[in-house]
Amino acid sequence: MGLRGKETPSFFRDFLDKCGGSAVIDGGFATELERLGADLNDELWSAKCLISSSSHLVRRVHLDYLDAGANIILTASYQATVQGFEAKGFSREEGVTMLKRSVEIAREAREIYHDRCTKDSSDFVRNERFRKRPILIAASVGSYGAYLADGSEYVGEYGDAVTVQTLKDFHRERVKILVDAGADLIAFETIPNKLEAQAYAELLDEEGIETPAWVSFNCKDECNVVSGDPTLKGFIAESANNCCSGINCTAPDFSGLISFIKKATSKPVLVYPNRGGTYIGGSNQWGKSRGLAGDDFVPYIGKGGDAGGFFFGGWCRATPNTLRGIGGAIYGKASRQMYITGQVFFFL
């Protein structure tokens, strides 16, 4: 889109303007891959589908979300690392190639979608604004805990041997590969502790990476990340640097988080909670929902406005149909906010 290299808050505000005041991003990725028949019972999780024999499924999920109205699609790289691919028997060169492919597949999907919009007059095209809406590729960078594949990103305990330098060294090559592959922005996701947030901020500075980025934290209540480290407000103020900040993979009932984050930064804030329930890393299952079921979280878009934010799914277990429902809810609102399905930017 020609927006790379701009200062992060301006990048997102400019993008919001190009979207006409509202923007929509995709929802759950692994859920859709499994629905299409992918077996993700593997340490690589959704990154397993970057292997050539399954890459068509990744492209299909991207296209399904674009058809549903997404303005931003996240790459299938959340759990993709060179180290992880090597542990599964791939060479370093193969691992680098698959990381690049995560961005390339998303770019291909965007091109296919744009081509459809140019040639196709079917109902999904809807109207000129829908056809010509801007679309960005966000390179998903999961936390170190995601690579460990032991549920660490849900508790934030990496052990005393893991330092800021350890995390910078771990993420450094991966981030550079994704940027060089042509991602429009970087999404550092499910951050469980202050240590990793600090590592991301220092890494971007050390490498002189100008690609806009956001950092999103995994929280256990209305003011603390899952590790039990000091408050989220301090995290954002101290370690977010020039990134936009927010939360993800967090229960949608923690409405106080939005007000809490607002006090920590004047930059755009993003929120993309799960659909409710608690993920149990040891068994790879979801525990009972805290009052939300199915698509019942969609009405929370409106209710969230009372707290200065909106609460709905979009990280785990959201679907293209979810996206359509959320899109219908948000476009009926006159607001200053930038809405993203499962991921909402608040321009304060």
UniProtKB/TrEMBL annotation:
GO terms for biological process: methionine biosynthetic process; methylation; S-methylmethionine cycle. It comes from the Eukaryota. Keywords: Metal-binding, Methyltransferase, Transferase, Zinc. One of its GO terms (molecular function) is S-adenosylmethionine-homocysteine S-methyltransferase activity. Residues 11-330 form the Hcy-binding domain. Coiled coil: none annotated. PROSITE patterns: HCY. This is Homocysteine S-methyltransferase. It comes from Phaseolus vulgaris (Kidney bean). The lineage of its organism: Eukaryota, Viridiplantae, Streptophyta, Embryophyta, Tracheophyta.
